[in-house]
């Protein structure tokens, strides 16, 4: 398994993360469970924040923390109910994005493992 710090460079850097996150938000925009959670009508700023966060996590530029500070992602999700339905909707959108991002099998498996773990850890409601 790749060290997450090398992942960004190995998979092709910025254009790959751009494609991944824009495909994810294309699905969110059409999702009846997720879309109502977003406080802003324009999903653009949320897309930029998720892209910066993922780039940083996977060894790319640290712009997320420069602009947003410590991620504290669980805390930042507290205003939104994230139960099993929201988690599964998020993963459904992310599955499509990951499958279409052009990763080789090993990198796809690695980032998918992370997404399923991260989505479960963001849950803050049992229903
Ligand atoms: C922000 C929903 C999981 C990363 C948000 C926002 C919503 C949301 C509604 C606010 C949009 C905004 O930034 O304006 C959800 C739901 C999830 C989920 C329903 C279901 C499990 C995740 C996961 C990650 C993540 C697994 C990371 C791998 C982020 C980031 C932000 C964010 C980085 C922006 C935080 C900030 O800097 O303010 N999410 N999220 N989310 N989410 Fe999630």
From TrEMBL:
It comes from Pseudonocardia petroleophila. The keyword Nucleus does not apply. It comes from the Bacteria. It holds the Pfam family Bac_globin. SUPFAM superfamilies: Globin-like. Gene3D superfamilies: Globins. Belongs to the truncated hemoglobin family. Group II subfamily. GO terms for molecular function: heme binding; metal ion binding; oxygen binding; oxygen carrier activity. Its cofactor is heme. Keywords: Heme, Iron, Metal-binding, Transport. This is Globin. The keyword GTP-binding does not apply.
């Amino acid at each position: 398994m790749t060290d997450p710090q090398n992942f960004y460079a190995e998979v092709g850097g910025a254009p790959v993360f751009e494609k991944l996150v824009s495909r994810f938000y294309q699905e969110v925009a059409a999702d009846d469970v997720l879309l109502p959670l977003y406080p802003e009508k324009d999903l653009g700023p949320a897309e930029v924040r998720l892209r910066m966060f993922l780039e940083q996590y996977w060894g790319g530029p640290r712009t997320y923390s420069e602009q947003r500070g410590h991620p504290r992602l669980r805390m930042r999700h507290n205003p939104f109910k994230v139960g099993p339905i929201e988690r599964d909707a998020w993963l459904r959108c992310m599955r499509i994005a990951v499958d279409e991002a052009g990763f080789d099998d090993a990198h796809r498996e690695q980032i998918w493992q992370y997404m399923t773990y991260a989505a479960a850890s963001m849950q803050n409601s049992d229903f």
